[in-house]
Amino acid sequence: MSLKTTYTTFQQNAQHSDLPLLQDLQKFTKDDLKNPEVWHQAFAFLEHGTGLLPANNQEVFALYEMLFMGGLDFKASVYLDEADYNFHLDTVINVLEQLAIHFPVAYSQIAFQYREARGTRRDPEKMSIYLDKAIENKVELAVAVKGYLLYYGVILEKDEETGLHLLNSSDSVWNKLYRGYISINKGEMDDIPALIAALKETNDPLLKKNVLLFEGNYLDHTEQIEAAKSLYQQLVDTDEADFAMFRLGSIIFSQSEEPVAQEAAFELWKSAFERGTIEAANHLGYHSLPTDVDTGSVTQAIYWFELGNLYHSHFSAYRLALLYLYAPSVLDAKKGMYYLDQAIKNGSLDAMIEKAEILIEGALAEKNEQEAGELLKKAAEKKLPYAFNRLGYLYENGIVIADTPDLATALSHYEQAAALNFPTAINNAARFYRYGILGEPHQKKAQEYFEKGVALNSTYSMTELAFMYEDGTIEESYQKAFDLFNQAAGLDYPFAIHTAGTYLENGYHNQNPDPEAAFPYYLKGAELNYANCQFEVGRCYRFGTGIAENPDKALEYYLQAAEGGNAKAMVELGLCYEHEYGVEFDAQKAFDYMQQAADLGYYYGAYKLGYYYMHGLIEKDTEKALQWLEKAAEAGYPHAMIEIGDYYMYDYDQIDQADKAFGYYQKALEGEIVHEGLGLCYEYGIGVEANNSEAFKYYEMAANNNYVVAMYHTGRCYLNGLGVKENHEEAFRWFNEAAQSDNTSAQYYAGSLLLNGKGVTMNKEQGIEWLNKAAAEEHATAQFDLGNCYLMGDGVEESEDTAMYWFEKAADNGHERAMKLTGRKKGK
């Protein structure tokens, strides 16, 4: 049955009641009126009584107050369907217009009906007209309400000057109250307690309730939460004030996650919404969203958001748009764009921005850059910092707004957003001045902007300002740089955490390296899933840096970092499998990890991959080896150049292009890496004119850099006076050192010098030992000399059989004198 039909019956009952009107009006209690049906029945009696005015005027006005002053009129209509709602609103306004002839305050109530009306029934123009009628009839509440709405531009067009004029037109309690709200919103709290005390002197019940709500608002803003909670509870208990219900529910919800508390909060929000606090629907919708919107049910949230949207909540409309645009369970782009438009219509700047981004991207709706630009400009007109910053980006990159970059306009927009304390825009403006994007760098302005960003806790500003202290742009101060990195690290900025850890580990800021202090920083960054920090934690566990060595932990964190795309960690994992650190040798895994690092462009991964191909870790492929080694060489890695030089020097593929080696060795030298290759080139004139002095120079340089083969060649130069004055002591020193590192030729020479006491005190036993080691490695001359030792009993017991054994071995390896002794012929 329609409300119209039901209400007609109520009207008939009111008109034909056998009771005196006074008794009819007095039979409705406040609790009864919470029932929408009873409310409409009582309203029918109010309509009947209004028609009989001025008779029973006190009782009629009392019933009017009961019906409208506690939000019960809203509760009576909130869940009505569209047809019943329209009938309800038309009937209410019609009766109020009749009532206002006798009680002008009803004009303000008509204005409130148009302000709070749902959908298309909201009418700002009519609201303003009826407020003006109330003002003409000296209704003080109407003066204050219109002044406040104009001041903030709520529903009405914003006009601060006219709004303030109305609010200052008298010192009525209502004007004082609303002026007080403006002071609270501005953060001007000093005079509020005295104002509250003065306002509480009123005897008007409606004013008293509103003064207590004002006091609660003050307590909220000054973070006196428990006092606010107590006051709101009082208002809920005595007046069922809708805003008090809403705030009490919000406080309870924030203070406890217990199901009972959460349920109580939901009930308070529901009651608040039913009395007219639309924001409560937003809370009900938002907190009804499942933890995982992608997979959970959003039905309940949509229910509340749709009710909020019905009553012009731009937050609800915007949330509905987001759900329909992005939640997989209810995807509907058409609905999403509809609600986005509703939110924009209701004044949502977030919705303007969202739609602009969608129109720029062109995925969820047809691309429309012109409309996107207009939306961003409208949002900027509303002083939305994001819009200024976004426009700055578009102007900077010459997209959407303009066909070519307009850097001056971009900077202007960044600076407008920066003036509104938008951190990203502050960073962008600073970037323009720091790097001279618009012209010459202006480091002073850059510093000023970055310092402003630091004050707003911008981690980007902190790190950029730190860089300015690092490179001396402001002043060179590694301590100040560290302090800024450390400040950003405290805000969980992973890059800064890693950098602060690096400072601590190496002592850049205080010359006091402290790996133990650095490790917790790396660990914190790792817990934030920052791959660079995960790598550092793995490195620390691998090498016992700042923490005890732990192969399992090292591998664990290397793996995390590698999965996060850290190429260094991939390399380290490859090396672990190559060198059996914490795991068994696995050539394939070593190869695969190096391949991953190489594919990411990491030079060392490319080098190792080339090395694996060159030396056949899994397969030998010198063509692929050279491709990867060249990539590493192009990246400036000198060891790759050495490896390519060796390829040509030692002619792995028998292509007779040894001259090419010199160029690669020379490039490696420019990278401050030298090994025996350059010495060989100069000694034998490979790719360069022969020069023994240069040969010795490079042999010795490489030897001092711990290249074992170079140690051998350096010893050879000293032994034979090649490019340097003959010096047997130096010769032995270098041979002995190379021998210790298993260089076979050096082992032979060290043994020979020890046997003969050249350059070293004679020690035949040790000399024989070195000859044995070289001979075991098939060094032909060592085998021949060892045979001679056994033949002559030199340092060993004489033995012709053993002597012949070694002569035969030497002959097998092509030693000419051994071949003659054993009757061999060359080639046989």
Automatic annotation (TrEMBL):
InterPro entries: Sel1-like, Sel1_AlgK, TPR-like_helical_dom_sf
Name under which the protein is recorded: TPR repeat
Pfam families on file: Sel1
